[in-house]
Amino acid sequence: MTYTDASLDALRHAGDELADATVATLFERGEVGTFNTLMRYVATVGAPLPDGLPAVAREYLHATSAPPAWVDWETMERARLFFADNDVHITTALSFAAMPACYLVPHVAKLLSATHGLSYPAKRMAETGQFTVYLMRPDAFEVGSRFLPAAQKVRLLHASIRHHLRREGRWDSAALGTPICQEDMIGGQMFFSLLVLDSLHRLNVHMSPEGAEAYFYAWRVVGALLGVDQESVPRDLDQGRAFLDRYMLRHMGPSAEGVHLTRQLVELYEEVVPGTVFDPLVPALIRYLVGDTCADWLEVPRTAWDRLVRTVPHLLGVLETAEDRSPLAAWALDRLGRHTTLFELSSLTRGRVMHYAIPEALRPAYGLSPTVPPPHRWTPPPPAPLD
Q1: Domain-embedded: residue 165
Q2: What's the domain range around 292?
Q3: Mean pLDDT of 311-326
Q4: HEC letters along the chain
Q5: Fewest CB within 10 A of the end CB: N or C in the chain?
């Protein structure tokens, strides 16, 4: 698949017909409050739908209650094992690279500021972390799982944002396209998949090509569940590189909202890191993973740790080699990584389950896994040639 500015321009004007129609009907009939109240009881796969659920919501939930028929479950299992082996590294990449990358797209930063208060970035981080953990559980698509209901709710959340911004005239559709359009949804999918893999490679995490491809595939499944157009989405890592390179060159840049969101993110993670001695590690790691130009746009502070953080890949390389060669080291490091991930998530959620709901209004201040070493290591696809 070839991506051009013209093809991406077309994606800027496409939303999600099913979710958009569902949300529009809920608002027209004044049923959003009822929906949000009752959907708190629909948290796991197989749970009966509550009495009184609006008919249009019931139809939407039935239509989106199963994963796509084309899903390759062997590949999804490889993705789960990849996550189990690398969960703490993936969490790090999501937190210190993928999330700041969202802030590098000015119109996305504006959207985030409208849907999550600038002073409360923990909410979005907690929702993203919880969503990823749900996805990578062995029973993610089985009865009792929380993943599918979460995906259904997130899809409606996106549609509600489109609804508000259009209805209230606070979005320049002619200049910016549809809010949370197909291009931006695919861009977000690339941030949480390919950009995470890029960051793991930069951190010297050992990955097999099969594991990296499976992780990328899992997020393609997520995209389908969230309403991403499967005719336009990248099917493999090379296509993903072509899309991501062009998307970032089209849109990335500085913005006041991006700077503010980044500052709040840094402060949030400084609170999660025990004590204060290691606080400078937070901005130093963001700067290392996103690069100096992007870090400057986000006004990530420079610290004395900027040079020290460059030793992290060497340390991780030693640990990864030990893990590859020793079953005991692999077990110990995997356990440590798992507990670290759970600690980070519990710190963000304060031990609560995050609920996804349709906002009845936006912020008024808004303006516009003996282990055998892999036969070869995964390396990122090369930059895509741009015409």
Answers
A1: yes
A2: 5-349
A3: 61
A4: CCCCHHHHHHHCCCCCHHHHHHHHHHHHCCCHHHHHHHHCCCCCCCCCCCCCCCHHHHHHHHHCCCCCCCCCHHHHHHHHHHHHHHHHHHHHHHHHHHHHHHHCCHHHHHHHHHHCCCCCHHHHHHHHHHHHHHHCCCCCCCCCCCHHHHHHHHHHHHHHHHHHHHHCCCCCHHHHCCCCCHHHHHHHHHHHHHHHHHHHHHCCCCCCHHHHHHHHHHHHHHHHHCCCCCCCCCCCHHHHHHHHHHHHHHHCCCCHHHHHHHHHHHHHHHHHCCCCCCCCHHHHHHHHHHCHHHHHHCCCCCCCHHHHHHHHHHHHHHHHHHHHHCHHHHHHHHHHHHHHHHHHHHHHHCCCCCCCCCCCCCCCCCCCCCCCCCCCCCCCCCCCCCC
A5: C
Would the pTM count as exceeding 0.85? no
pLDDT at 341: 47
- State how many domains the chain has: 1
Report yes or no on 377 lying in a domain.
no
In angstroms, the Cα distances linking 95 to 122, 127, 128 are 11, 12, 9
Instruction: Report the chain's mean pLDDT, rounded to a whole number.
Output: 82
Percentage of the chain beyond pLDDT 90 is: 49
Q: Does some domain include residue 59?
A: yes
